[in-house]
Design goal:
single chain, mainly beta
Length: 196
């Protein structure tokens, strides 16, 4: 354990005989970093996948705006779900997730094991658009991911929240928004991730 000065304009910090941090005239190294991906249209398919997530990612945030679907009126609504995946594919089971929403005169809570939920089934129709964020972080030394979301339905006074967890069993490489029916007809996402 110690602090060394191995060259001009260089300071190194070590613990347990392993270098943990280096500072040079170029800046820091050995410290985690953020990567920000520009706002991207979600397109018109039934799902949108963020692929190529680096396997050493420990936290990510997705901001989304104006997500909407082309499903019809009452009785044919869709919901927006969210899944995580590895190089073996998207996980479709073993989620421990809950979603709820609040309105002036109504409250709702439900649990899911096949996905994280972004919105509930009776709101996904062309008349509605959704704005919000998703945060996911990994428990240190595991492949267990935690999920937290908060979403609003435009200016209509509905607030959705979700939380949960899943053990992926391997390193994360992808995340996906999807609809149970219909297609997205608008919206965009931006993605930021942190690597150790």
């Amino acid at each position: 354990t110690g602090i060394t000065f191995p060259a001009a304009d260089t300071i190194k910090f070590a613990t347990g005989g392993v270098e943990r941090l280096s500072i040079t005239n170029s800046g820091l190294s050995g410290v985690g970093s953020w990567t920000h991906v520009n706002d991207t249209s979600i397109g018109t398919g039934g799902s949108y996948t963020i692929s190529g997530i680096p396997t050493d990612t420990t936290f990510f945030r997705i901001m989304f705006s104006d997500l909407s679907s082309n499903t019809g009126s009452s009785g044919s609504e869709s919901y927006i779900g969210f899944r995580l995946g590895t190089s073996s594919g998207l996980k479709t089971d073993n989620y421990n997730a809950i979603i709820g929403y609040l309105e002036t005169s109504y409250q709702y809570v439900n649990a899911w094991t096949s996905r994280f939920m972004i919105t509930s089934a009776n709101y996904g129709r062309a008349a509605n658009s959704f704005n919000g964020q998703i945060q996911c972080w990994k428990s240190a030394g595991t492949n267990k991911w935690h999920f937290l979301s908060d979403v609003n339905r435009g200016n209509a006074g509905t607030l959705f929240w979700g939380q949960g967890e899943i053990n992926l069993g391997a390193s994360i490489t992808q995340a996906q928004f999807f609809l149970n029916t219909g297609s997205f007809d608008g919206g965009s996402v931006s993605f930021s991730y942190y690597q150790d």
